[in-house]
Design goal:
Helices cover 43% and strands 16% of the residues. By secondary structure, the chain is of the alpha/beta class. It has one domain: Homocysteine-binding-like domain (TIM Barrel, Alpha-Beta Barrel). The strands form three sheets. The protein has an eight-stranded parallel beta sheet with strand order 1-12-9-8-5-4-3-2. Strands 6-7 form a two-stranded antiparallel ribbon. It has a two-stranded antiparallel sheet with strand order 10-11. Helix 4 packs parallel to helix 6 (87-99) and helix 10 runs parallel beside helix 11 (261-273). It starts with 8 loop residues before the first helix and ends with a helix.
Length: 299
Amino acid sequence: MPSSQPPALLDRLHAGELLISDGATGTYLQQRGLEAGGCPEEFNASRADVVRGMASDYFEAGSDMVLTNSFGGSRFMQKKYGYGGRVIEFNRLAAQHASSQKPDERHYVLGSVGPTGEMMEPLPDGVSESEMYEALAEQMRALAEGGADAILVETQMALEEAVTGIRAARENTDLPVFATMVFDLGPRGFFTMMGVTPEKAVNDLREAGADVVGANCGNGIDRMVDLAAQMRAVDEGPMLIHSNAGIPDMKNGRIIYNEGPEYMAERFERLADMGINILGGCCGTGPEHIRALRARLQG
């Protein structure tokens, strides 16, 4: 008899299915009480209602998957907030809160692992590879224990940290591993802050064992369309793009993102036509952007 179980996440991606991710975490939390300079991950303990509400709102808007509230959840980042001893707690709660809102088994939770804020040796004052590895592995194990369906090593600028993160995820969990980097457009094209081209990033992340590769943050949707085309030209595997709602601007002392839901949705459709497998938002996007994206792709 055929199995009644829904296909696994990677099976759906390899079958060519297009899945919709969520929007920004920080933007959502800041609109609901996170103060400037505050620790987003601490909200997993003190404001569980907000964190669960975020996952619920994105799922309701049409997301097939949401990210955990754990972007800065490594021991390196949490020590700066004074929460170095609560890394496991915060990450486990982040995954539990998001997982509790999944409508069914065809929806997923990605364990978000952002940059540690540290450079690696041999750069001056860099941490050792073993220190970086263990900090990332600690975070990833907690996310897996909390119920994450995959690990997303995201918003990376240094290939060394991204590759270490991929290895830590593969060796410490049995979850699919996604990896994305941030690129800026300069006179010579797209590069990470550390001088890595999109082509090299895709090849090295894939070689390190990433099941899904891609880019997020740093750019508005028009630049992300161009960046995605450059990445897709050298890689046919599952790919993810999370776009900002434009380049941030300051207005009356507030950070403003100028790309609205319909503007972004139209250009997300170009990414879908390009064969990008997972589409979602980054800084400045919210449930309304995901709702417009879902409507555009369905209609």
